[in-house]
Write a structure and sequence with these properties.
This protein is of the alpha/beta class and 429 residues long. It has 12 helices and 31 strands. The strands form 7 sheets. Strands 1, 4, 5, 6, 8, 9, 10, 11 and 12 form a 9-stranded mixed β-sheet that branches. The protein has 2 domains: 270 residues, Spore Coat Polysaccharide Biosynthesis Protein SpsA, Chain A; 124 residues, Hexapeptide repeat proteins (UDP N-Acetylglucosamine Acyltransferase, domain 1, 3 Solenoid), CATH 2.160.10.
């Protein structure tokens, strides 16, 4: 794997994850109480012995850069790095990244300096665990120019993805972006060709692109230099290369979730609490997910009732009820609170006891969840100050609402409290 360079696409403005992306890049969005989205592809690379890693981003990249610098520092005896490449203006490219392919094109001069054989292109907003060595070995065994990682998918979800057709040798011969009706029916394939059983193939007669690719070095450089008007890998570069180049499909049969929307992000996080076995687990000694070591104290639970939940380190919970929820680092929940079906991202810092007491006396709301509050089906971003006897329930069952001036949004019926928001005592949402 020394001959492989990984490029992680950090995405654009992250509008589908807004307001979680209001103050941070999409790959920097917190995950599972203590991680960030970027930790997933970077950890997969490290576990696959790929240590040359670039992360391309252009929006709110300060916190992402800080996280990567503090988390992934390789030994001086190893030629490895994790480095952010943010959009920049040059004489050749005076504009921002116009798409995934354009982002790589703008840094082509830098990445082609490395003496490598393949580029591994990854997305920064997926949740999965994958050994890229098997992916790259398949690419090399088939003498492919480009290999796409694909997942088998059923008819219900197929129209939401870019689909492809393959021949009997696994070569990709046709593409269709989010087809419907007759166009969808034409994209059915015999997925036993990729190793599925006949029963599995009947349930999942379509194959969808995961947005993960391996390119031979010369092929990627040629495609980007010759097709300057094409700015996106999935929609333009790869479909256009199908006739001239050998495109192969690599089947991935494990858990994979695109968490690019608020609803998908919410469900993916709460699914981690599922018993007896969640669809994705961070408890894997052979393939751990790495993140920043914060050296926080153990969480303190004082007479609490906690069921089907994950609690990050450094939390203080007092006489509260927590059910089917994920609480991030340094979360603070006061007495008589009920937290259900929710994700609390916690805080970036502690508020000293004297400061909290002073705040109570001056009627300022302390960091965390105030006493007597109830939160259901919500995401509470970092450093939020929720007052006493606050009800966050989406009582009117609204699907979509922009109430940024009041400190919250509603997305797909899920209440999202904005980072650093202050919700006054007695507020009902």
């Amino acid at each position: 794997m020394k001959r492989v360079l990984s490029i992680i696409l950090g995405g654009g403005a992250g509008t589908r994850l807004y307001p979680l992306t209001k103050l941070r890049a999409k790959p920097a969005v917190p995950l599972a109480g203590k991680y960030r989205l970027i930790d997933i592809p970077v950890s997969n690379c490290i576990n696959s012995e790929i240590f040359k890693i670039y992360v391309l981003t252009q929006f709110n990249s300060a916190s992402l850069n800080r996280h990567l610098n503090r988390t992934f520092a390789f030994s001086g005896f190893r030629e490895g790095f994790v480095e952010v490449l943010a959009a920049q203006q040059t004489k050749e490219n005076p504009s921002w990244f116009q798409g995934t392919a354009d982002a790589v094109r703008q840094y082509l001069r830098l990445i082609q300096e490395w003496d490598i054989d393949q580029y591994l292109i990854l997305s920064g907003d997926h949740l999965y665990r994958m050994d890229y060595r098997k992916f790259i070995e398949r690419h090399r065994e088939t003498n492919a120019d480009i290999t796409l990682s694909v997942v088998p998918i059923d008819e219900k979800r197929a129209s939401s993805f870019g689909l492809m057709k393959i021949d009997d040798n696994g070569r990709v011969v046709d593409f269709s972006e989010k087809p419907k009706g007759d166009a969808l029916a034409k994209m059915q394939v015999d997925t036993t060709t990729l190793g599925l059983t006949s029963q599995e193939a009947r349930k999942s007669p379509y194959i969808a692109s995961m947005g993960i690719y391996v390119f031979n070095k010369e092929v990627l450089i040629e495609l980007l230099q010759q097709n300057l008007e094409q700015t996106d890998f999935g929609k333009e570069i790869i479909p256009g290369a199908a006739q001239k180049y050998n495109l192969q499909a690599y089947l991935f049969k494990d858990y994979w979730e695109d968490i690019g929307t608020i609803e998908a992000f919410y469900h993916a996080n709460l699914a981690l609490t599922q018993q007896p076995k969640p669809p994705f687990s961070f408890y894997d000694e052979k393939s751990p997910i790495y993140t920043r070591a914060r050296y926080l104290p153990p969480s303190k639970l004082l007479d609490c009732n906690v069921t089907e939940s994950m609690i990050g380190e450094g939390c203080i919970l007092k006489k509260c009820t927590i059910h089917h929820s994920v609480l991030g680092i340094r979360s603070r929940v006061e007495a008589d609170c009920t937290i259900e079906d929710s994700m609390l991202m916690g805080a970036d810092y502690y508020e000293a006891f004297a400061e909290r007491q002073s705040g109570v006396q001056t009627e300022q709301i302390p960091l965390g969840i105030g006493s007597g509050s109830t939160i259901r089906r919500a995401i509470v971003d970092k450093n939020a100050r929720i007052g006493r006897k606050v009800l966050i329930l989406n009582k009117d069952r609204i699907e979509e609402s922009n109430r940024e001036d009041e400190g919250f949004y509603i997305r797909s019926g899920i209440v999202v409290i904005i980072k650093n928001a202050v919700i006054a005592d007695g507020t009902v949402i």
